[in-house]
Amino acid sequence: MIDKVKIEKLTPFDVAKYENVDLDHLVMYAMSQLEKIGADLSFENAVVATFRLFPKKFSLLGFPSYPDSLRVYTCLWRCSTDKKKQWLGGKIRQGFIITDRSRIFIREAENLLSGLSAKRTKATSKTRRKESILVEVESSPAYSKYMKGQGNSISEADFCFLLQGTLDSSQETLRENLAALKRFAHELQREDISKFLNWLGERFKSFLSKNKGK
Fold it and tell me: Which of 34, 79, 83, 210 makes the best surface tag, with the fewest CB within 10 Å?
């Protein structure tokens, strides 16, 4: 209960200060703030803290008043599990640990939020954003099933979830989101994801062409 009260007192940054900062650095900063107020470094606390501090970056698509837990999950997974990073100690289920290595990236985050290194951030923010979105694709149930050779078990709900939509989303929106993902995969030369998205497009071709009004 104490954690909840302290976390809810976190105040959001001005959007201009974080709009060009990558998601992973923002999550690292949020974790440092949890440590500062003495809150547990749990996944649940991280979801609320990142949303409180950076609502524009961590809100649910279409529902700005709610946090996107999947986005936070993906960042935490990348920061703690990716062998190229290892910015955080611990795991999602057990909770996290801020290590000496973590503090390097927390300082980077503080510098980015204060305006230092802004030129470097602006130059790479769009690419990082696209990379983050493709990581979300790789973390989706649909991609997991596809990689396990269970592509035929991918449901329409799985497909919509991958496209950051629901079964109630318009076909036009879903088609636009799929096209955007394909474009990002092509620009970042992710042939593996391009192949997957093209396969999905063919599998759900009739679903994407449905007219819900009829």
Answer: 83
